[in-house]
Amino acid sequence: MVKHLVFWRLKGNALGATKAENALRIKREAEALSDVVPGVRHLEVGIDIEGSSAAWDIALYSEFDSREALDAYQAHPEHIKVRDLVVEATCERAVVDYEA
User: Fold this and answer.
1) At a CB cut-off of 8 Å and minimum separation 6, what does 42 contact?
2) For the residues of the chain, what is the DSSP string, one character each?
3) What pLDDT is attached to residue 69?
4) Residues whose CB is less than 8 angstroms from the CB of residue 59 and which lie 6 or more positions away in sequence, other chains included
């Protein structure tokens, strides 16, 4: 199994929306991917509740059966739509992929 974790820091305002509005939109649209992209075993998105300067604003946790399934997810047109939204709304990104 491959686990895919992504963390984002959001811009204060982007896409005509506030940071909080964009966080909710990213959460909603990213979590919907598990219903339309084959190979997603589990996917969840969490929005930070502490607001610490060390915290990331959003975390995505997902699981795939294989690296090939993760690659297919990343190339899927629906994922690309969400990725484009995220790129516009964020200022920093961190990612970790590992096999478990």
Assistant:
1) 34, 61, 62, 63
2) -EEEEEEEEE-SEETTEEHHHHHHHHHHHHHHHHHHSTTEEEEEEEE-SS--TTS-SEEEEEEESSHHHHHHHHHSHHHHHHHHHHHHHEEEEEEEEEE-
3) 97
4) 5, 6, 7, 45, 46, 48
pTM: 0.94
Asked whether the beta carbons of 58 and 26 are under 8 A apart, the reply is yes
Whole-number pLDDT of residue 98: 98
Residues 34 and 78: beta-carbon distance below 8 Å? no
- Residue 83 to residue 77: CA distance in whole angstroms: 10
Question: What percent of the chain stands above pLDDT 70?
Answer: 100
Res. 85 pLDDT band, cuts 50 70 90 = very high
Instruction: Identify the structural domains of the chain with CATH numbers, from first to last.
Output: 2-91 (3.30.70.100)
